[in-house]
């Protein structure tokens, strides 16, 4: 028997439509989310003070939910800064660079190294960690700079970020919005991430080689004046306090081993979600402290704080636009009752679940239609260029569809996550491509153009696979 929908349900649905409209037009959605929270609060409390307070309280709720994710990203970025400045990153990848001898090896080698690094450091810091070192190697063996940028982009901002299995920022957002355990979304995403990754990277490589043979390849190079490499900047900053080659080699072995031990511990101790993130974060903090003290010596105490501040600035800059949007979508589940009290109908299981039940009673929705719709919605939410700001919406709508067809919640949630991050996380939207484009000295617009066909093909194949998994 269906639940009778109240005005709150319809208002929530109207604002979801407004948010989608703004995303399609590539406009910012923060204001409409705040207005939506205000409107829902006004309906729930019937007081102006209650609805105004609800805006702030929903921000606090969203921040508390996201705080672990913000912290781990901030700490990883802080650690990556000291690795770049000391040149440890160069030492870490030097043995791998000697194995790259052909353009094909360069493409797949850079891509795989970028993917593995991005799982632990996230793609933007990973681009800085390995791009400056491996790009000259790739160009020397005949891989164009644009080809190297594509490899870093598709493997890092595509495969690694859309799965996000170590830091678990993306699955945390989508799982919370869908009311699911993080582990279930991660498990459901594995086949989708593999299919999307294989189809996209193989298609991109084939198109690149075909165009090179046909003489239609454009490298998209841009000239950067007065630039200096990250290593040069690091040497200027530390000067005489640079680590000795022997110490750098030792640390270049120890650091990956420590993270490898973290992964082993996750499997042995069955750590997932926040516990797994905490282990990686604590390891990164200890590495940051140890290397900073070795490199800066007497100034180490102050520099540790300096690097942490850099990391926190980056973390809150990335998640600043996400918090108001997540605050609105958290209201679709248990957060509404926690913030505004028991004002929904007695049999309600949350706004989104209620809408899903109503949809099942009125619309002939099935797994195939749900999968196609989730891919489209995920892609639309990625149009703002962040990839993360809209995945809460994808999670909410996945739960709505799953409630309607009584199956496939985790798969639909994972599909929305994959589509949103591949489009907006840094493979198609030009302003999201800047890290990889800048490090390789190519145009972000040309990089987006080269990525378009492979990513669209990957999304189509992944959606078909999802239809059979729902």
From TrEMBL:
Record key words, sorted: Membrane, Transmembrane, Transmembrane helix
Transmembrane segments: 6-24, 31-60, 66-84, 105-121, 127-143, 150-168, 188-208, 251-270, 276-295, 307-331, 368-388, 428-445, 452-469
Key word Flavoprotein present: no
Record carries keyword Metal-binding: no
Protein name, per record: Transporter
């Amino acid at each position: 028997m269906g639940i009778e929908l109240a005005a709150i349900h319809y208002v929530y649905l109207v604002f979801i439509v407004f948010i989608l409209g703004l995303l399609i037009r590539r406009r910012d959605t923060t204001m409409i989310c705040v207005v939506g929270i205000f409107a829902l609060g006004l309906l729930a409390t019937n007081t102006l003070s209650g609805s105004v307070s609800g805006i702030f309280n929903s921000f606090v709720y969203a921040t508390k939910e996201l705080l672990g994710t913000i912290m781990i990203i901030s700490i990883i970025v802080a650690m990556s800064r000291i690795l770049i400045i000391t040149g440890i990153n160069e030492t870490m990848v030097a043995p791998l660079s000697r194995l790259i001898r052909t353009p094909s090896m360069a493409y797949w080698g850079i891509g795989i190294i970028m993917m593995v690094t991005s799982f632990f450091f996230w793609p933007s810091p990973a681009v800085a960690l390995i791009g400056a070192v491996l790009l000259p190697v790739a160009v020397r063996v005949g891989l164009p700079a644009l080809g190297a940028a594509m490899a870093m982009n598709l493997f890092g901002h595509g495969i690694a970020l859309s799965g996000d299995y170590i830091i678990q920022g993306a699955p945390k957002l989508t799982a919370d919005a869908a009311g699911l355990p993080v582990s279930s979304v991660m498990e459901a995403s594995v086949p989708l991430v593999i299919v999307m990754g294989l189809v996209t990277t193989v298609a991109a490589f084939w198109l690149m080689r075909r165009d090179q043979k046909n003489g239609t390849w454009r490298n998209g190079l841009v000239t950067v004046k007065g630039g200096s490499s990250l290593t040069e900047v690091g040497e200027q900053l530390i000067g005489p306090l640079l680590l000795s080659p022997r110490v750098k080699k030792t640390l270049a072995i120890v650091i990956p081993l420590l993270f490898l031990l973290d992964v082993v511990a996750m499997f042995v101790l069955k750590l997932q979600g926040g516990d797994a993130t905490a282990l990686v974060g604590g390891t990164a903090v200890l590495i940051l402290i140890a290397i900073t003290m070795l490199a800066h010596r007497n100034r180490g105490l102050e520099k540790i704080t300096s690097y942490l501040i850099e990391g926190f600035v980056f973390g809150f800059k990335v998640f600043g636009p996400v918090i108001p949007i997540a605050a609105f979508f958290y209201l679709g589940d248990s957060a509404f009752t926690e913030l505004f009290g028991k004002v929904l109908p007695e049999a309600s299981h949350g706004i989104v679940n209620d809408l899903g039940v109503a949809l099942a009673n009125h619309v002939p929705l099935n797994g195939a239609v749900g999968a196609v719709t989730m891919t489209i919605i995920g892609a639309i939410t990625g149009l703002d260029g962040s990839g993360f700001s809209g995945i809460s919406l994808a999670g909410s709508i996945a739960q709505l569809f799953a409630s309607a067809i009584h199956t496939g919640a985790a798969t639909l949630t994972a599909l929305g996550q994959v589509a949103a991050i591949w489009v907006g996380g840094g493979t198609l939207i030009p302003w999201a491509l800047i890290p990889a484009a800048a490090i390789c000295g190519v145009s972000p617009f040309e990089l987006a153009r080269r990525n378009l066909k492979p990513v669209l093909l990957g999304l189509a194949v992944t959606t078909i696979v999802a239809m059979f998994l729902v």
